[in-house]
């Protein structure tokens, strides 16, 4: 498996399970309807675990553009590899969101609240305030990337050195995402990953989802720009401290 395919599959698994739990909790007449925030944050954490386990031996399991860019800024990943990783992550996120729609199509069809349908795919702030929403995404991603950089040197050895999350092991990363969701996720839904929001939002926009409403592109820049800035700031601070 090439790093590109590994990032695509790892991100697809992340989004399938992550957006899947949101669908299970908020759509009408699912077995998990009303499961709540603990169910969502726990499943997202384990979704990260699954994505990292699969992708780590081949790509380092970034499965997040903010991590890829952060590692490149920190000098732990080649900038020449960044575009292919970002493309793979975006395509993987779109694929995962498509699988969620297919799986829960009957429940999408009977759910009348358009915001719930969008909420399966994209993050929606609890209180819409672009300034504070952006800060939440910057800070949440800063905690993610900064902690990753201090777990280890973010490198692993296979047949050649591959930079990324793989050396951390899947469980510590999952626990990190879990606590970020529990502690910091209540404001915006903690995208902390540009591909996680953009890929599924694109699927919401292009798929024939019954009575889906707006894809809310006016907000979409927040979960894209915020995580990228957070990853860069984390990398810069780690360079200063080291």
Gist?
This protein is mostly helical. 69% of the residues lie in helices and 2% in strands.
Can you walk me through this structure?
- This protein is mainly alpha-helical and 242 residues long.
- It has one domain: Glycerol uptake facilitator protein (Up-down Bundle), CATH 1.20.1080.
- 69% of the residues lie in helices and 2% in strands.
- It contains 11 helices and 2 strands; from the N terminus they run H-H-H-H-H-H-H-E-E-H-H-H-H.
- A two-stranded antiparallel ribbon has the order 1-2.
- The N and C termini lie far apart (34 Å).
- About 6% of the residues have low confidence.
Throw out a few tags for this protein.
69% helix, 11 helices, globular, single chain, two-stranded antiparallel ribbon, mainly alpha
User: Would you tell me which CATH topology applies?
Assistant: Glycerol uptake facilitator protein
Radius of gyration: 17 Å
* Relevant CATH superfamily: Glycerol uptake facilitator protein
List the uncertain runs: 153-159, 161-167
Q: What is the helical fraction, as a range of percent?
A: 55-70%
Morphology call: globular
User: What is the total tally of β strands?
Assistant: 2
Secondary structure elements and pairings:
Blueprint (H helix, E strand, L loop, with lengths): L2 H24 L10 H23 L5 H9 L8 H22 L1 H6 L3 H8 L8 H22 L3 E3 L3 E3 L6 H15 L9 H13 L10 H4 L1 H20 L1
Antiparallel strand pairs: 1-2
Helix pairs in contact: 1-2, 1-4, 1-6, 2-8, 3-4, 3-7, 3-11, 4-9, 6-9, 7-8, 7-11, 9-11
């Amino acid at each position: 498996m090439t790093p590109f395919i590994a990032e695509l599959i790892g991100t697809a698994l992340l989004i399938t399970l992550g957006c899947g739990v949101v669908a299970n909790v908020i759509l009408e007449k699912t077995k998990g309807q009303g499961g709540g925030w603990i169910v969502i944050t726990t499943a997202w954490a384990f979704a990260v675990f699954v994505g990292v386990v699969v992708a780590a031996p081949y790509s380092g399991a970034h499965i997040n553009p903010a991590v890829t860019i952060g590692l490149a800024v920190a000098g732990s990943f080649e900038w020449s590899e960044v575009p292919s990783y970002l493309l793979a992550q975006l395509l993987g996120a779109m694929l995962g969101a498509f699988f969620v729609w297919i799986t829960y199509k009957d429940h999408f069809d009977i759910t009348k609240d358009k915001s719930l349908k969008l909420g399966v795919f994209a993050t929606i702030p609890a209180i819409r305030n672009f300034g504070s929403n952006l800060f939440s995404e910057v800070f949440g991603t800063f905690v993610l990337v900064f902690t990753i950089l201090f777990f280890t040197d973010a490198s692993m050895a296979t047949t050649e050195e591959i930079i990324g999350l793989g050396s951390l092991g899947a469980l510590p990363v999952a626990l990190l995402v879990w606590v970020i969701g529990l502690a910091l996720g209540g404001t915006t839904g903690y995208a902390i990953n540009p591909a996680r929001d953009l890929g599924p939002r694109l699927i919401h926009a292009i798929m024939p989802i019954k009575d889906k409403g707006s894809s809310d592109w006016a907000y979409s820049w927040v979960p894209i720009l915020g995580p990228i800035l957070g990853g860069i700031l984390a990398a810069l601070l780690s360079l200063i401290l080291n």
